[in-house]
Amino acid sequence: MDVHVFVEREGVRRPARFGSSRDPRAGVPGPRLVNGVAVVPFLTRSHGHLSIDAGGHAAGVPAAARLTRARRRARRLLVEGHVRVGEEPAAPAVRHLVWRERGSGREYRERAAAVSAEGFAAETDVPPPGTWDAYLELDLGGPPVRLPVKVEAAMDAPARTMRWWRGPLRWTARPYATAVNRRLSLSVRVDSPLTLVKRAIRAVRRR
Fold first, then answer.
1. DSSP letter at 194?
2. Which of 11, 15, 98, 100 has the fewest CB neighbours in a 10 Å radius?
3. Alpha-carbon torsion 82, 118, 100, 145, what sign?
4. Smallest Cα–Cα separation from 110: which of 131, 125, 94?
5. For 33, what's the count of Cα atoms within 13 Å in the CB-facing half-sphere?
6. Beta 63-73 vs 145-151: how paired, if at all?
7. pLDDT of 92 over the 80 cut
8. Taking the complete model, does pTM exceed 0.85, yes or no?
9. What is the rounded CA–CA span in Å between residue 157 and residue 151?
10. What is the pLDDT of residues 140-184, one digit of tens each?
């Protein structure tokens, strides 16, 4: 939505775009949540006019999702965190935790829910073998908004490595923070008994 002002002089009233001429100290207000819709004021690239995006259609929504806890529950992973739009808590807008496989682009999703104004939680099955990056999907009144789930610097490891046997195969699921940007990721591997024996032999030889 474009912001206009109406100028009236000598009985003539005309609309004009607003914002291109402004005090250098004047800034653009931060985003707000209005009835669950993200309202983002911004300046147009061409002329610097003031406009408002409702729902994230034209302007990116300044939002962040942060992991606060991850733990194993049987063979599932419980993920908890905080999400904000600008300075406002936004957990009621949370819809899904999405795992995206880094190499193939495959996606695996689980429902996520608000547990407080800022807090969210999702309990997820371990996806198939691969390297999976975690995203939180929100409904902010427009196209779905996806946020990478960031791991706090104070957390050395998001959660313990999970290992279990399924028939003759051993599954390993290791949650970790990426070296760049500390995004939550999950490495899933399946090993046969022969692979495990070969790995043990190599480890002995290296000693």
1. H
2. 11
3. negative
4. 125
5. 20
6. parallel
7. yes
8. no
9. 9
10. 998 899 999 999 887 777 888 999 888 889 999 999 999 989 999
